[in-house]
Design a protein that fits this description.
The complex is a heterodimer of chains A (278) and B (268). Chain A has 278 residues and is α/β, with parallel strands linked by helices. Chain A has one domain (32-56, 81-259, 266-276): Rossmann fold (3-Layer(aba) Sandwich). In chain A, 35% of the residues lie in helices and 25% in strands. Chain A has twelve helices and ten strands. Chain A has helices at residues 46-52, 81-87, 99-102, 109-120, 127-137, 143-146, 156-168, 186-203, 217-220, 238-243, 248-255, 272-275; strands at 4-15, 18-30, 35-39, 62-71, 74-75, 92-95, 174-178, 206-211, 223-228, 231-237. In chain A, the strands form two sheets. In chain A, strands 6-7-8-3-9-10 form a six-stranded mixed β-sheet, with helices on both faces. Chain A is globular, with a radius of gyration of 19 Å. Chain A starts with a strand and ends with a helix. The mean pLDDT of chain A is 88. Chain B is α/β, with parallel strands linked by helices. Chain B contains nine helices and ten strands. The mean pLDDT of chain B is 89. Chains A and B meet through α8 and α9 of A and α6, α7, α8 and α9 of B.
Chain lengths: 278, 268
């Protein structure tokens, strides 16, 4: 049985201007210990799909029209708030794109990590040690001191490490990383990718990576799902899709990545008119 | 000074230093300083695109900002068309604010949400062309929007009605409004999706050819910089560690830090 199974998921947003369909019926599954990437541009519905896994979207304006989300065989869409809270953070944890806005500026890093531990393990006596341990795990030097820092005292890369520490503090089965490196420098991006790879292997955790950048996928994920305007247009092993994309949209998305050794050549932006309605 | 040949040095920076006082200043006997830019020298020729690469904290943005006095220069000098601009009083510097324009990194924070696109783009016109009539400003805005690939009829809309890529185009239109010669682009594409990034890079290349502009292109991604630049400067810890022809630097890096930057570009 797969760890996560999404069947015919449809999500729309209601506003005064009418109804917008963000996700138009997608199916995918994720095994335990597997790493999968969902790739697409802004507006493709990739983040909305990921958020809906633990029903993080606020009900109005978001509305799940139909579909099933089975986590360990249980339907998340039919769960009550109390059951959902047991899954959020404990079973499925998230890392968001912008570490500087995801962290609360008025609490220390240590306090914010301890919140999750205290919520999911009320019996735990050594919360402090666990916080320090989780900071050490993500390669933060001097973790005892750093736990007392406020978010603004850390660099972007450090903040993202703290976010990862927070997500991993409760040893989740599935980590959803939504554009974890987009706000970071390329050199820091490389470090964070290496870190994610390392913790995933060490803990045997599943990873769902959400990104617009094909470049970082092959280093992290075996399988890739390509989304375009709310639908899955292509799915397959990451290396094969990268080398031999079947769908014109996938090809266009790969072509527009800047690579070294192409001075003076033009980048090819995506020609939506040519792609038409898919 | 106009109509000089292409090899003319437009901007020349000599031993530039920018330092910020560290905390504990006021009553402490000795003030300590952090050198954000620590003796940087380079020059930009007319019509050239020079890429400035480095990590956050390397001082690349501060260097760009120091040129237009958005960061305090604490040492060295900056020459524009042979005249020293770093020590000029603000009144004399005014015409250079028209010649040198800047495009900022974050298209979300660099446009005032309470101003319409027309107001945003005509604000620099109000300052540098006070004699322009309202109709002329409207026409100029329409023309600029067309240049950057937006619909002129959208000029009465507000920034939140546009996507990230469209906002960056508005930022570019604002920089072009006063007919500048030299544009400093501070990470113009790092906040954008890869597909939108490609559009903006191509737009900048088109503008250089069409308007004969000179660019200082600041970014952390060396692959992006290589696409556009004629020459590349690599900066770390406030110093330039390598500079040279773009293809040369990327295919045959000499400095260890440049090698590290190149290794960080995802390969597949």
């Amino acid at each position: 049985m797969s760890l996560l199974e999404v069947k015919d998921l449809r999500i729309s947003f209601h506003s005064r201007r009418g109804v917008t369909e963000a996700v138009k019926g997608i199916d995918f599954s994720l095994d335990s210990d597997e790493s999968v990437a969902i790739v697409g541009e802004s507006g493709s519905g990739k983040t909305v799909s990921a958020m809906s896994l633990t029903r993080l979207l606020p009900p109005p304006p978001a509305c799940m029209v139909s579909g099933k989300i089975l986590y360990k065989g249980l339907d998340v869409t039919k769960m009550g708030e109390a059951d959902l809270r047991k899954i959020r953070g404990r079973e499925i944890a998230y890392i968001f794109q912008e570490p500087s806005t995801s962290l609360n500026p008025v609490f220390t890093i240590g306090f914010q990590i301890s919140e999750a531990i205290r919520l999911h393990f009320p019996e735990e006596k050594n919360v402090r040690e666990r916080v320090v341990e989780s900071l050490r795990d993500v390669g933060i030097r001097n973790p005892e001191e750093r736990a007392k820092s406020y978010p603004h005292e850390l660099s972007g890369g450090m903040q993202q490490r703290a976010m990862i520490a927070m997500a991993l503090a409760c040893a989740p089965r599935l980590l959803v990383a939504d554009e974890p490196t987009t706000a970071l420098d390329v050199t820091i991006q490389k470090q964070i990718i290496e870190l994610l790879n390392e913790v995933r292997k060490k803990r045997g955790m599943s990873l769902l990576l959400i990104t617009h950048n094909f470049g970082i996928i092959s280093e992290l994920c075996k399988r890739v799902i390509v989304m375009f305007s709310g639908k899955i247009v292509e799915e397959g092993p990451a290396l094969e899709v990268l080398k031999n994309p079947k769908h014109p949209y996938t090809k266009a998305l790969i072509d527009c990545i800047p690579r070294l050794g192409n001075r003076g050549k033009k980048l090819t932006p995506i020609d939506y008119e040519k792609l038409g309605e898919i | 000074m106009k109509n000089l040949e292409k090899s003319e040095e437009l901007l020349s920076v000599k031993d530039l230093r920018v330092s910020y006082p560290l905390s504990g200043g006021l009553f402490a006997s000795k003030r300590k300083f952090f050198n954000a830019v620590d003796g940087v020298s380079f020059s930009v020729k007319r019509g050239e695109i020079v890429g400035l690469v480095g990590e956050s904290g390397s001082g690349k943005t501060t260097t760009g900002r120091a040129i237009i006095k958005l960061a305090p220069v604490s040492g060295g000098s900056i020459f524009y068309e042979g005249r020293e601009i770093s020590s000029m009083p603000e009144g004399d510097f005014m015409p250079y604010r028209k010649k040198i324009q800047m495009i900022f990194q974050d298209p979300y924070n660099s446009l005032n949400p309470r101003m319409s696109i027309l107001q945003i783009i005509s604000e620099p016109l109000d300052i540098h062309f006070p004699k322009m009539t309202r109709m002329q400003k409207r026409d100029r805005t329409a023309e600029l929007l067309e240049t950057v690939g937006l619909e002129p009829k959208h000029m009465l809309r507000y920034p939140h009605e546009f996507s990230g890529g469209q906002r960056q185009r508005i930022g570019i239109a604002r920089a072009l409004a006063v007919d500048p010669e030299f544009i400093i682009c501070d990470e113009p594409v790092s906040a954008l999706d890869v597909s939108v990034q490609a559009q903006i890079i191509n737009l900048l290349e088109d503008l250089r050819i069409k308007l004969g502009l000179t660019f200082l292109f600041i970014a952390h991604d060396i692959a992006v910089v290589e696409y556009l630049s004629d020459r590349i400067l690599v900066m770390t810890k406030g110093k330039i560690v390598e500079q040279g022809d773009a293809a040369q630097v990327c295919s045959n890096p000499r400095d260890a830090y440049t090698k590290k930057l190149i290794a960080a570009v995802p390969k597949f």
